[in-house]
Amino acid sequence: MEIKVRVGDIAQIEADAIVVNLFEGVDQPGSATAAVDKALDGAIGSLISRGEIKGKFGEVSIVHTLGKLPARKVAIAGLGKRQDFNVDKIRGVAGEFCRALRKVNCRKIATILHGAGIGGMELEASAEAITEGAVLGLYGFAKYKKPEYEDIEEILIAVKEEEKAPILELAIGKGKLVADVTNLARDMGNEPANYMTPSRMAEAAKELASKYDLEIKVLDREDMEEMGMGALLGVAKGSDQPAKLIILSYKGDEHSEKALGFLGKGITFDSGGISIKPSEGMWEMKDDMAGAAAVITALWAIAKLKPKINVTAIVPATENLPSGTALKPGDVLKAMNGKTIEVISTDAEGRLILADALSYAQKLGLSPLIDLATLTGACRVALGMLYSGLFGNDRDWIDKVLGAAERTGEKMWHMPMPEEYKEQIKSEIADVKNTGNRYGGAITAALFLAEFVDNTPWVHIDIAGPRLSTKESGYIVKGATGFGVRTLIELALSEART
């Protein structure tokens, strides 16, 4: 799909459909919507007065022009309440109107810059958000089936000021890159586990590295044994698929040895192991590598945007399956940093593989660190499916991550890490055990990970809830969401500016 700037009046553009908007509670259309309404002899105003167009967020009303405009259809996109309007609403609006118009066989659409008038939004911010929302909202994983609809081929973003076109083209380019990368993470998460194995994930990382001049190293079992990664290898024992530790590096600042560390949980399928999960919903566990997909694909975008910063991504990748050789409850493992771990549940495997990954990040001197992991069902219970839980040991780093998340519209909630809860993960026979009781499970999981970061500034994001969606809403579609990708990119860009 091509997205580009068109200088001119939206009402004069020839397309299958043009898109204007309306805030909730507005009685009369204004600005571009008013101009289009006038050309349609007041049809939009009439529908507003009858309550058929309300301007509610997510509402898309489609009116046929009947030859009164060069475009065949007009879509009126609801922006919601003016006081709630922000950049993320623009992304959502774009996703909604693109899907609505695709369903009525529109291939070429033109849109105004939503929010750029009375919404008070900067033109480039609106253009970037429209682009992100359109590309994300039209995503579908059609590798193994025929798509339900033919896709939109071209989106024109109309602007009247010709001098604004170059800066808008740049904004569109960035928005499309970020959305394309997020969709690649979605592809990885939607792939069946018989295709997205640890080895295939390593190959995908190698392909990105060769394409975008990233450094890559993939450690195999022998390498990990030599380094003492007993926690990761312990989880891998139940599978015939070989475990991999993927290290992907971007060096944008040749004058510095300092590098950010991005870590992602890469369980390509999680049965729970010997502590096996219920069969209902187990198919979702093909996306238990959503954190890994996020950090790998974020490096792709960072490499293309070329910020002056160094970033290294570390992905421990394995399956978690039951077998005669599988890890058992009660076993003791030794992590790379020398700490021993009593395994209470083999279904608490994500924190085991991250223990070695965090230890390896310490060895490389990466700082600060951020890990993304579909770590606990407890976080879904606490925060539902829209919010991820954010934990950390450094207030400044926590605030930076939360700021990046807010700018991208990815919902995160700062969670506590009280010392009193550490009692739950004390072991009688080892340094630590891998799970506590049923209460505060997301917190005790974070406290476990903290055992492997020492004093390095670190944030852990439990993305178990928002990494998957069961419905379409705004720019989110069914299946893997690619959650975290956009925050990681924004974080790297903002850190490069400081």
Break the fold down into its secondary structure elements and pairings:
Elements: E1 2-7, E2 17-22, H1 31-39, H2 43-49, E3 60-64, E4 73-78, H3 87-103, E5 108-111, H4 123-137, E6 154-159, H5 165-190, H6 198-212, E7 215-219, H7 221-227, H8 230-236, E8 244-251, E9 260-264, E10 266-270, H9 290-305, E11 310-320, E12 332-334, E13 340-342, H10 350-364, E14 369-373, H11 377-383, E15 388-392, H12 395-408, E16 412-414, E17 432-433, H13 441-450, E18 458-462, E19 468-469, E20 479-480, H14 485-497
Parallel strand pairs: 1-6, 2-4, 2-5, 5-6, 9-11, 9-14, 10-11, 13-17, 14-18, 15-16
Antiparallel strand pairs: 3-4, 7-8, 8-11, 12-13, 15-18, 19-20
Helix pairs in contact: 3-4, 4-5, 5-9, 6-9, 8-10, 9-14, 10-13, 12-14
Care to give the gist of this entry?
The protein is 36% helix and 19% strand.
